[in-house]
Amino acid sequence: MALDSKIPSGPLDQKWSKHKNDSKLINPANRRKFTVLVVGSGLAGGSAAATLSELGYQVKCFCYQDSARRAHSIAAQGGINAAKNYQNDGDSVHRLFYDTIKGGDFRSRESNVHRLAEVSTNIIDQCVAQGVPFAREYGGLLDNRSFGGAQVKRTFYAAGQTGQQLLIGCYQALSKEIAAGGVKMYPRTEMLDVVVVDGHAKGIVVRDLQTGEISTHAGDAVILATGGYGNVFYLSTNAMGCNVTAAWRAHRKGAYFANPCYTQIHTTCIPVSGE
Question: Residue 250 phi/psi, 5° resolution?
């Protein structure tokens, strides 16, 4: 069986922008007719739920924590890279793309990494608009620092707690949409299974972790934003809840696993041996 990664055709640096321009649009007046299920409420899930709700879709967001504020995204403290070239040292989308490919030992999917580099500048703007207090220079401009694997200063940061500040900004945007009625939040809820119809995820089965009640939710699309899984290792800096159960349940329903070895653990977790 051939592995189809669903990457669009065309030149490398135009694949995803061309795909976006060719995709069918949904009229703003019709978006309220569609329901999107978002599993996970960290930086990926929380921002997806908030943004989709702002666009007009009906959103249900699920997390097993007692609040979206407790998502493990707070643990990413170093900073976030974007090709804004504020330091005027020759940074560009291509340079961020190349550094990321090289940092991934040349095994990452090139077109997906290029898309990440393309939208990196917009992600910083979105975070600032959501109130993330990035570090700033004396003149008020956003500051940058150099981080591992990068040849230029492109890391935006908030002291030593970038992940926490990003999550608070994301949580504020999510809370605004919950209050407006666009997002219905389901905390303390664990996903048990994915409902697949004609090869597409159209619903999920969940369990209320307080009462044990099992229920089903149907939607027009399902977003799995369930984080990494550091506990495949004996030692890890990830929380005990980062245990790959959601990805595994999708895998059981036919989703493929790509590079499960790509799991970040901190070097402090590598056991000492010898001198």
Answer: -70, -40
Longest Cα–Cα distance of the chain, Å, equals 66
Residue 34 CA to residue 36 CA, distance in Å, equals: 7
The beta strand positions in 109-208, using DSSP E, are 155-156, 183-186, 189-197, 200-208
- Cβ 263 vs Cβ 234: under 8 Å: no
Tens-digit pLDDT profile for residues 151-197:
899 999 998 899 999 999 999 999 999 999 999 999 999 999 999 99
Q: What are the C-alpha distances in Å from 121 to residues 86, 93, 128?
A: 11, 9, 11
pTM over the 0.85 mark: yes
The mean per-residue pLDDT over the stretch 40-63 comes to 96
Is 26-72+185-275 assigned to CATH 3.50.50.60?
yes
Instruction: Return the C-alpha torsion angle 204, 208, 214, 217, nearest 10.
Output: -30
Q: What are the extents of the domains in the chain? A: 26-72+185-275, 78-160
